[in-house]
Amino acid sequence: MRTLVIGANGLLGSVVVKTLKERGADVVGGYHSEPPEFEIPLHELDITDTERVAALVDEHDVDTVINCAAYTDVDGCETNPELAAQVNGVAPGEIAEVCTTRNIDFVHFSTDYVFAGDTDEHYAEDTDTDPVQEYGASKLAGEKSVRDADSESLILRLSFVYGARGDTKSITGFPQWVASTLSSGDEVPLFTDQCFTPSRAGHVAEATLDLLEANDSGTFHVASQSAVTPYEFGEQICELIGSDESLIAQSSMSDLNRDAARPQNSSLDVSKIEAELGRPQPTLRDDLEEIEGAFSDYML
Asked: Membrane-spanning regions, if any (predicted)?
């Protein structure tokens, strides 16, 4: 198995590369700016440069392309919708076309933000989509363009992706901010009025490769079975590192002035992938324990 991972420098991409290597696969990485720290063939790559993508696919004779690249700045997408549409909407479909004409597998990652978030229920794969911001709209357009180009593609919707990088093993994003702030003895204000089902990058990578090995296609939700608020997520990080729980403070989404709206409840129903893989999706506690070592600098 030789796989081209587009976006190999990001959190998810770096973990996908690591997981592929652990399974004995040959891996080629495409990165946008700074290369990841892997000893594999690495190429600077703009996801919108379809000709360059096609050339790399042919040069390395890959049999699978996994697209981890996206414009994920939610507020940035709101102020620059043209870029969001090109990177998240158009480019994935063009890459899917490159793959389908060569009869190779294509995996594309999408988001819980394709849903409105105005229900108390978990969203299933076939629930009607209705994004409330440009980011979600561009990712939904990407899903459609991929399906139109390659009906056998694998589209995986994720929620609040976090974890430890695959190359440096360092924790990034929300957990790093919460842990570092707590370890400094400072208060951490976290929303109590937003709910999601966090997706740990390592879990996503394992599930992705298992679905590929099973020759699955279509749309799946890959996330924790735990629906939590940022406040509850922060509480579990606080407990993990042994910090002072009184430093976790309640706040609401309205406390921040942001360009883009966020869904209030974007929790994903994971029963489809549980049935397909024959195992339950992890809880948030399970996932945090998997990366406990990455929090070592913040343990008290």
From this structure: none
